[in-house]
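From the pipeline queue, job 12 of 40. The input is one protein chain; the requested action is below.

Action: predict structure.
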Amino acid sequence: MSSLQCPTRVFVARHGEAEYESDLVTDDGGSLTRLGRTQAQALAEELRGERIARVWSSPLSRAVQTAEIVAGLLGVDVVVREGLREYGVGSMSGTHADERATVGAVFEAWMDGDAEATIDGGERITDFVDRVTHAFAEAADQHRGEAILVVSHGGAILAGVPRLLGLPAASVRDRTLANCGVIELAADADGWRGVRWCGAPM
């Protein structure tokens, strides 16, 4: 069997609970709370029997801290990729804007079929999905026949997974992913398939 036929088992997790230095909207920062660190430790225990070969992470601190806790407990390395970062806040950065409502409107438009949706100064949703899925594909391609963990963000994961699985964007409209919640995927030469979402078969 060639390496292309050997599936990569990809465990995708949202970072642990985080707190921020101020209440201004920002793309940066986010340090794990005590609960967030406990969540990361529990994630490592959940994956201990999966023989994780490497942890891939968004460069944002809340994701890197999560990844480093898990990797340290599992005895593996961490690789950081820009493509796994969250959707950017654009011109809202440094303001008191309602980030949840504004960015949420972009995601709602995307799920309704608007591939050009964006916020002022931010990425087109299509470009965002492209970069996230490219990062996932890079990670999977480097670990054929192995298992890996990818630590990213709620928006990035919920936007990227449908594209990987060939599903409509609206398929995640009612999906949620708690801090350190896990989605298990598999990737091989024939494409991607969903295995489990937070423990439930997909």
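Job complete. DSSP finds five helices and nine strands in the chain.
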